[in-house]
Amino acid sequence: MNGAKKKPLLRALAGERLDKPPWWLMRQAGRFLPEYRALRAQARDFVDFCLNPELAAEATLQPVRRFGMDAAIVFADILLVPMALGQKLSFGEDGPRLEAIADHGAVGRLREDGIASRLEPVCETIRRCRAALPEETALIGFAGAPWTVATYMVEGGGSRDFLRVKSWVYRDPEGFQALIDLLIEATIAYLAIQIAAGADAVQLFDSWAGVLPEAGFARWVIEPTRRITSALRARFPEMPVIGFPRGAGLMYERYAAESGVTAIGLDTMVPLDFGRDRLQTRLPVQGNLDPILLVTGGEALEGAVNEIKTALGRAPFVFNLGHGVVPQTPPENVAALARLLAEPL
Ligand code: CP3
């Protein structure tokens, strides 16, 4: 436990300010790395890949080996939860496809008891990574937050307007609540087995937190997150939970105050002075470089990194992107970022 406390990521999440902020990148394992593409070619499909601990552990470790981030994030996907609940899932050229569920009856056919059994391979990936990672490198587990996972389950994939899921929310909030309740329980169970397997911290990805008006944000984003953080805190009092309510805009403040998260991930659009003055005064913040600057590189990258370090580096802070690494990113730009972050403030 003492050794674990020394990990820079965990020190920052516990509220300590570090001269060199710890860093990792959302979607740091993925198609921008040639070694990932080679590994990916060995699995029949993406779900098989995520559920193969040997391949998934290798994918998790690849970016850390190359760039020396302060944390690895277990290689998996937020949509493994609906799959484990019994929904058909596949990944095609145009992204994920789920057999859409549209009413209360379909919710009744989902089964929470699949979480521990079907997602056990993710725990095995965590154990393997744990054994292979340097002692100072943290291992992050994750899940999608209930609202974001529900959007994929109801839309049957990605969406532009969230027409189906929002129509359900407005027409039949009590029926939709049953789906969210199931996802809350499933998410608690899933994160708990990841923690038991050796995750040092967990992150909740709420990628579509930004599409709801105020009352919906409180009910479908903040409240489910609060129930998850309080259940995890009861079982694992010290476990850091990072919340990432992407696109929350002005609602970032209420999320920080009410969701119970230990630290908050800032998306690309969050102004640095707002992050510093309104959020970091309350909890450690993580973020928020525009991932496209990692495609551009050069002086634009350097300038933006320095701005973020100057604004947020004087209080508890974890450097990250404001959203995931994109496949077009030249790996040498991530190496350049690693060098920039190695310089103390
Ligand atoms: O961060 C990491 O390195 C860990 C792995 C990770 C993946 N997905 C692997 C992945 C994480 C943390 C995720 C989270 C995830 N998955 C989110 C939340 C974050 C976000 O981006 O908003 C969401 C919404 C998903 C759902 C998902 N998975 C989509 C929409 C897609 C297809 C489009 C895309 O961006 O590729 C995926 C597939 C996916 N998940 C890939 C990877 C590496 C690409 C598939 C491949 O390599 O064949």
Structure description:
- This protein has 345 residues and is α/β, with parallel strands linked by helices.
- Helices cover 52% and strands 12% of the residues.
- It has a seven-stranded parallel sheet with strand order 1-4-5-6-7-8-9.
- Helix 10 (146-155) crosses helix 12 (173-197), helix 11 packs across helix 12 (173-197) and helix 12 (173-197) runs parallel beside helix 13.
- The chain is globular and about 55 Å long.
- It starts with a helix and ends with a helix.
- The mean pLDDT is 97.
- The structure holds coproporphyrinogen III (CP3).
- Coproporphyrinogen III is lined by residues 26-31, 40, 46, 73, 75, 77-79, 91, 95-96, 142, 144, 158, 205, 207, 324.
Helix content percent band: 40-55%
Task: Report the β-strand fraction as a percent range.
Answer: 5-15%
> What oligomeric state is this?
single chain
Overall 3D form: globular
The ordered string of helix (H) and strand (E) elements is HHHHHEHEEHHHEHHHEHEHEHEHHEH
- Counting helices, strands and paired strands, the structural category is alpha/beta
Number of continuous helical runs = 18
- Rg, rounded, reads 19 Å
Question: How many β strands by DSSP?
Answer: 9
Main beta sheet, described?
Answer: 7 strands, parallel
Largest beta sheet: strand ordering:
1-4-5-6-7-8-9
Which ligands occur here? Answer: coproporphyrinogen III
**Arithmetic mean pLDDT:** 97
Runs in which pLDDT lies below 50 for 5 or more consecutive residues are none
**Terminal residue distance:** 29 Å
